[in-house]
Amino acid sequence: MLRPYSSLVLTAAVALLATGCSLEDTTAGSDDAVPVVIGYQSKTINTVTAGTLLRARGYLEQRLQELTEETGTKYSVEWQDYDTGAPITAQMVAEKIDIGSMGDYPMLINGSRTQANPRSKTEIVSVTGYNPEGALNMVVVPPSSPATTLADLAGRKVSASVGSAGHGTLVRALDRAGIEPGTGVEVLNQQPPVGSSALESGQVEALSQFVAWPGLLVFQDKAKLLYDGAELNTPTLHGVVVREAYADEHPEVVDAFLRAQLDATHFIRTEPLEAARIVAEDSGLPQEVVYLYNGPGGTTFDTTLRPELVEALKADVPYLKSIGDFADLDVEGFVDDAPLRAAFDAEGQNYDATVTTPGSPTAVTGTDPVCGTPATDPALAGEVWFADATQTQPAASPTCLLRAVKQARAEGRDVRSAYIPDAELGTRWFADKAVWVRDGDTFLPFTTDAAAGRYLRVHPAGTVVTYDRAVEEVRQ
Predict the structure, then answer these.
(1) 458 in helix, strand or coil?
(2) In whole angstroms, what is the distance from residue 272 CA to residue 155 CA?
(3) Known InterPro entries for this protein (predicted)?
């Protein structure tokens, strides 16, 4: 287990490089510096508080600078960017990465693969973000695909990164649908960019991936959503793993990293739109896509190792064993909250109070100026982002959101993007990509055709309408 770190017993110090400097800039003349090698995924925006945002804001470097001013010991920080968690794990096995962030399935594979070697053995020390229902992973198909349910993929080729969080959701979903991967569905092991190209070229009939790939492809009109991972109603999460030997040798680094992650978490929760801008600029993703997941009602950004998330990791193990060579792993022993507790204490925060308080994403707030009512219900509230505005406008309900868009069109204002929670599962989604149902004067958005179908079976008076028609028909 990792040794708890306290600034009161700090025996080493760190020097750091100027914020925003490249590795070449920071390592020059620092042969005597202690290296910190961090593996992250710039486009996996659920890990941004331990990766893209953390790096861009320079929080780790600032924390290390505080230590350097106390003792003068030098540090060189190297950030390595990857598409998935698998290569990060390979580098940790080789003892070439010290700290890494990745999804739930990759973290478990990481623990399984590294545990045989004391030098590479890892532990989970924090969570970056999670969704309690599983909406971070999704299956998409081409826009013209006739498929409306997972069952329609039987006998088809599906792209996924084997061992990734997106693959885990696919395996679970196919199992629930009674379809065997490998027989009922052929899974092609492809990195997200390769799979995206394969989907666009027609080489595969579907793609199952983690954030932000499904949202990106749908936003670009290159795909439509077939399966929302929230249907599984199983938590999906991303987190941070560290090499235990490295943490034992340099506990002050782990402490600085976790305190920096707390800084990034606070920033993304209080300044979500600005955080989305920063992440978009650094990752190359459209800001509208980043904000879909990182904005109010999206990912729950919370560092604590909640018991329900640990239980979810345990429940993942049987599925990992079903898809490949997975050595038994003591999940309880793999999770160590001592360093994070120490970081909370150092920041004057109460870990126990936080971990026992129900977690939730930030919520849409403010008064809806169109309907004239406060946006208080997270199951209904959405946002409209006008092209000429620097902040989003709250919408108290889906119907109010449509009214806001209708009014904007009448005034000649362009809508950059609009977001609304799915009426069944609560998943935050693009309003113009949702499947809309009109039931009387009420309009309801759904992420998938299947979800809309489930509603209509119970409410036969409803009817599916296009987004544009919903905007036209909504009463002001």
Answers:
(1) helix
(2) 42
(3) SsuA/THI5
- The half-sphere exposure of 370 on its side-chain side, counting CA atoms within 13 A, is 23
Instruction: Dig out the tokens for 167 from the structure.
Output: 């693959």
- What are the tens digits of pLDDT across the range 192-218? 999 999 999 999 999 999 999 999 999
Q: Are 408 and 438 in contact (CB under 8 A)?
A: no
Residues 127 and 306: beta-carbon distance below 8 Å: yes
Torsion from C-alpha of 161, 172, 39, 211, nearest 10 degrees = 80
Smallest CA-to-CA distance from 5 within 56, 82, 63 is with 63
> Which token pair is 205?
């009939």
**Residue where the block lists tokens 């030997």:** 245
Q: In the CATH hierarchy, which fold is given to the domain comprising 7-131+237-355?
A: D-Maltodextrin-Binding Protein; domain 2 (3.40.190)
Average pLDDT estimate for 402-427: 98
233-287 confidence digits (pLDDT tens): 999 999 999 999 999 999 999 999 999 999 999 999 999 999 999 999 999 999 9
What is the pTM assigned to this prediction?
0.91
Residue 60 is encoded by which pair of tokens? 């780790």
Residue type, 343: A
- Model confidence over 299-341: pLDDT tens digits? 999 999 999 999 999 999 999 998 887 999 999 999 999 999 9
- Spelled out in words, what is the top-level CATH class assigned to the domain 137-232? alpha beta
Which pLDDT does position 30 carry in this prediction? 55
Does residue 47 contact residue 129 with C-beta atoms inside 8 Å? Answer: yes
Would the CATH topology of 7-131+237-355 be identical to that of 367-473? no
**Structure tokens, 306:** 């909640």
In this structure, what is the dihedral angle of CA atoms 461, 466, 469, 471, given to the nearest 10 degrees? 100
> Measured between alpha carbons, how far is 377 from 363 in angstroms, rounded to an integer?
9
Cα 422 from Cα 414, distance rounded (Å): 23
- The number of beta carbons lying within 10 Å of the beta carbon of residue 347 is 13
Percent pLDDT > 70 in the chain is: 93
- Parse the chain into domains and list their residue ranges: 7-131+237-355, 137-232, 367-473
pLDDT over threshold 80, residue 382: yes
Q: Is 382 helix (H, G, I), strand (E, B) or coil?
A: strand
Residue 179 CB-density burial (10 A; 0-12 exposed, 13-18 middle, 19+ buried): middle
